[in-house]
Amino acid sequence: MPDIAHTPLAFRFPKPAPPAATYAQNTKEFRYWTAAEALRRGADFWAVVVPLTAWELGKTLPVLLDEGQDLNAYYDRKALNFFHGPSPSGTVYSGESPDVICHEMGHAILDSFKPQLWGAASQEVAAFHESFGDMSAILSALQLQSLRSDILSTTGGKLAQASRLSRLAEQLARLIHEPFRCGFSASVLRLGDGRGTQFSAARGTARFRYAGRFAGLGLIGGTAASAMGLRRAS
Ligand SMILES: [Zn+2]
């Protein structure tokens, strides 16, 4: 069972944990345990990679899983904030996605390690923050043996191919981009194949264009392969 109070990177939810049990999707209990598992998995990964003894804001990082209606999620040096929004198939909660959870936690990790990057007057720095968040989502996902096996199976070991690993936060991205009618594809947030800039089409900001560029450094083809003990796929 994930221990959110585990240090050095502890979390705190406003309400007590629901009893550990099997819950249906789209219940607040399901969202709690999904978030708790993803946060603990991601933080435990980073805790052995970066020399952190606490978050930028202190020992414990608050997590607010449903702060109202918005297709959004963010870290603001006070908490990890998640929201909900409508979709044709029902309400979507950004805090129900481990990709989104571990992306936002990545911002908090980087802010704790390099606080001088926060709010820097540079689109490149903001883009690096976004890219780091996406790398956090990918590397946290790779801690799951079941996902690693699935990626190897579905790509035939060619890790640069689109896969569940490269398609980050598909559900939320689809809803955010839908109003723009910009030819969005389900792999819009994918990284590592040089087409991450597709994400910029809707938002049209340098921040996201650069995020795609940074992400194109070959994380999936390189780092993921190393993490899985493989040679880089051509
Ligand atoms: Zn972000």
Describe what you observe in this structure.
By secondary structure, this protein is α/β, with parallel strands linked by helices. It has a domain at 1-118: Elastase, domain 1. The chain is built from eight helices and six strands; from the N terminus they run E-H-E-E-E-E-E-H-H-H-H-H-H-H. The chain has helices at 28-47, 98-113, 123-141, 145-155, 170-177, 200-203, 206-215, 219-227, and strands at residues 10-12, 60-64, 73-75, 80-82, 84-85, 92-93. A hairpin with a 4-residue loop joins strand 3 and strand 4. Helix 1 (28-47) packs parallel to helix 2 (98-113). The structure holds zinc ion (ZN). Zinc ion binds next to helix 2 and helix 3.
SSE order and pairing:
Layout: E1 10-12, H1 28-47, E2 60-64, E3 73-75, E4 80-82, E5 84-85, E6 92-93, H2 98-113, H3 123-141, H4 145-155, H5 170-177, H6 200-203, H7 206-215, H8 219-227
Parallel strand pairs: 1-2, 2-4
Antiparallel strand pairs: 3-4, 5-6
Helix pairs in contact: 1-2, 1-3, 2-3, 3-7
Bound molecules: zinc ion.
The site of zinc ion (ZN) has 4 residues, from helix 2 and helix 3.
